[in-house]
């Protein structure tokens, strides 16, 4: 994420908004952190979440949706290890801002969409 500019945040937020659900649908069955990723998504787009928290989560989610990253996602097991570690680090830093409402929404979204769960 382009941390120093609002334009970078808006660009990353737009990309995450557009590409998160299609990417999650493709890979949800093969990643153990799907619920955390969806809860992070809801927290990142919650207007009540402080901007610095939103920026942290948008950055981690943008890395998740990027087609090219440090370890290609198509590699078994290792492919999502870098995505998971970046998302886990982001969540650890902002955990107190991820509410039960975000986690409940994530569980509902995963339970309601058979293509994801």
From TrEMBL:
InterPro entries: DUF1232, UCP031804. Pfam families: DUF1232. It comes from the Bacteria. Keywords: Membrane, Transmembrane, Transmembrane helix. It is a multi-pass membrane protein. Residues 54-88 form the DUF1232 domain. It is found in: Endomembrane system. GO terms for cellular component: endomembrane system. Its main location: membrane. This is Uncharacterized membrane protein YkvA (DUF1232 family). It comes from Methylopila capsulata.
């Amino acid at each position: 994420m382009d941390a120093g500019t609002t334009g970078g945040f808006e660009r990353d937020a737009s990309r995450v908004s557009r590409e998160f659900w299609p990417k999650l649908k493709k890979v949800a069955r093969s990643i153990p952190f799907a619920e955390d990723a969806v809860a992070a998504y809801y927290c990142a787009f919650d207007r009540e979440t402080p901007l610095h928290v939103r920026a942290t989560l948008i950055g981690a989610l943008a890395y998740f949706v990027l087609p090219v990253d440090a370890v290609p996602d198509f590699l078994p097991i290792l492919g999502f290890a870098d995505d998971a570690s970046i998302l886990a680090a982001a969540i650890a830093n902002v955990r107190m801002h991820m509410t039960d409402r975000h986690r409940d929404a994530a569980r509902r979204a995963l339970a309601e969409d058979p293509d994801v769960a």
